[in-house]
Amino acid sequence: DGTTYRNIGSNTAGGAVPLTALAQRTALAVNVEYIPLRVTTLVGTNQYWAYCPYAGAVTGIVSITEGVLTTGNATLTCKIGATAITDGVITITQVGSAAGDVATATPSAANPVVVGSKLSLTVGGTNATATVANCWFEVTRS
Q: Exposure of 39 by Cβ count < 10 A (0-12 exposed, 13-18 middle, 19+ buried)?
């Protein structure tokens, strides 16, 4: 009949427990989408944009660098349209930096999105090397 079962422990009969559709999505994290955005240089104050095809909330932002930073840290300020996301600034640290460094931000407010929202990252900081950062917005769908 299409019912999905997942063994999450014993019920009174000692067998697998059926999950509701919502519980299945939550258990499998299929309500989470990732929107990629490539920041071509961590120098200057350029702004980079991505389209959000989902309704929900931005629940995480991740960056991974392709090179080393010099002089100082780089920042990526995240916005939805013109509104800054609360706790949505990624700081990429220069000291000890290397290609493959991961930096994250965990938004706490001002993070709801609708289909068609414009997501952006604005470069800041004092980094002096034109290093690429590959980034993702994590959107938890509503």
A: buried
